[in-house]
Write a structure and sequence with these properties.
By secondary structure, the protein is α/β, with parallel strands linked by helices. It has 2 domains: 137 residues, Glycogen Phosphorylase B (Rossmann fold), CATH 3.40.50; 158 residues, 3-Layer(aba) Sandwich (Rossmann fold). 28% of the residues lie in helices and 13% in strands. It contains 12 helices and 12 strands. The strands form 2 sheets. The protein has a 6-stranded parallel beta sheet, sandwiched between helices. A 6-stranded parallel beta sheet has the order 9-8-7-10-11-12, sandwiched between helices. β11, α10 and β12 form a beta-alpha-beta unit. The longest helix has 13 residues. It is globular, with a radius of gyration of 20 Å.
């Protein structure tokens, strides 16, 4: 059972993991967290992450203690409020900068696993987020599988079972597809007989009600209070959806973790870095310009990225209607792609992922 704060077991060695970011960041770290759990079954696994992620951390079901930590604008926390003796092991899953390593080093762990400038393992700027952290652990002798990302389907009832769920929001304007285009997609899907629901993040009620009004949907199609849908309700909504249409946000990663068909719209950053696993139930739309690399735009910018604007409502409707029926998610620890499964149609412009074994001398 997950404990929050200082409610730890004094008789167990402790591993501290720093991942003080958002929902999508947590879900892309699930394979690495599971690898640590398997490798260190007698350790108390402590995750330093924002306290508002408690329900999501509980759903991941491998962390013993959530230690609330975070900073504005995805910065490294100034400190981790560690109340115990130095951790046996500290793992930096936060980033590649010296700041996150320094926060952990100040706690004097017996061992620190991290990417470090000028030494191995080497950071790869064009690596998918799930693969990045699994490669780090594997280099240190902890086998980790980036496809080990699925969560159990939540027991809670969905407020809109069988609906196509549209999530128009994002925490940055650069990754927010125009609301009038979401409205066009919603209107066309409804014309084709689909039930459509809109999910709200914090502060997104006005946005979602505007989309609903333009699409001719009733106000009841908008799901979420001003603070956003609680994680349990959001997970139930996504788990029992016919499909999810979403930008590059935490909701997209939740659809991947629950094995729910999705259409994911990318703009400033390539899906090669943050996209869903290669499976027919996930459709990725990305329209880069000639010569674009994997990070051609600012994912935290205020204005909609021009690559996102190249995606049309017709493309989204076609991708959504081509999705297969949703299969039941596997149990925790099951791979997201079964042996022999064909790869998904990843959409135009998606780069390939770099493969290769880590090398060099560890910290």
């Amino acid at each position: 059972m997950l404990r929050e704060g200082a409610g730890a077991d004094p008789d167990r060695p402790r591993t501290l993991v720093l991942r003080a970011l958002g929902l999508g960041d947590l879900l892309t770290a699930v394979p690495a967290l599971r690898a640590l759990r398997r490798a260190l079954p007698h350790h108390e696994l402590v995750l330093a992450a924002p306290g508002w992620l408690a329900d999501a951390v509980r759903a991941v079901d491998v962390v013993d203690v959530l230690l609330p930590a975070g900073a504005a604008d995805r910065e490294v926390p100034a400190r981790v409020p560690w109340p115990w003796a130095p951790p046996d092991l500290a793992v930096d899953l936060h980033g590649n900068g010296p700041a996150s390593r320094a926060v952990l080093a100040r706690l004097r762990p017996r061992r620190l696993l991290a990417y470090a400038d000028g030494s191995a393992p080497h950071w790869r700027a064009d690596e998918h987020e799930r693969e990045r952290w699994c490669r780090l652990l594997t280099w240190y002798g902890i086998p980790a599988d980036p496809d080990d990302l699925l969560l159990r389907r939540p027991a809670a009832e969905s407020p809109a079972p069988g609906a196509v769920v549209l999530h128009p929001g994002a925490d940055a304007g650069a990754r927010r597809w125009p609301p009038e285009r979401f409205a066009t997609v919603a209107r066309e899907l409804r014309r084709r007989g689909e039930e459509v629901a809109l999910s709200c993040g914090p502060g997104e009620q006005e946005l979602c009600h505007g989309v609903a009004e333009q699409a001719g949907l009733p106000p009841a199609a908008v799901l979420g209070p001003p603070a956003g849908l609680p994680f349990g309700t959001l997970a139930a909504l996504v788990a029992r959806a016919r499909a999810v249409v979403v930008g590059d946000t935490g909701v997209a990663h939740l659809a991947s973790a629950l094995a729910v068909p999705s259409v994911v719209l990318f703009g400033p950053v390539s899906p090669a870095l943050w996209g869903p696993p290669p499976h027919p139930r996930h459709r990725v739309l990305w329209r880069p310009f000639p010569g674009d690399g994997v990070r051609p735009g600012d994912p935290h910018g205020a204005g909609t990225d021009p690559r996102l604007l190249r995606i049309t409502p017709d493309e989204v409707v076609v991708a959504c209607t081509a999705l297969p029926g949703r299969g039941a998610p596997g149990s925790p620890g099951a791979g997201s792609v079964a042996p022999g499964d064909p790869g998904a149609d990843a959409g135009d412009g998606v780069g390939t992922r770099e493969a290769g074994a880590p090398h060099g001398v560890g910290l």
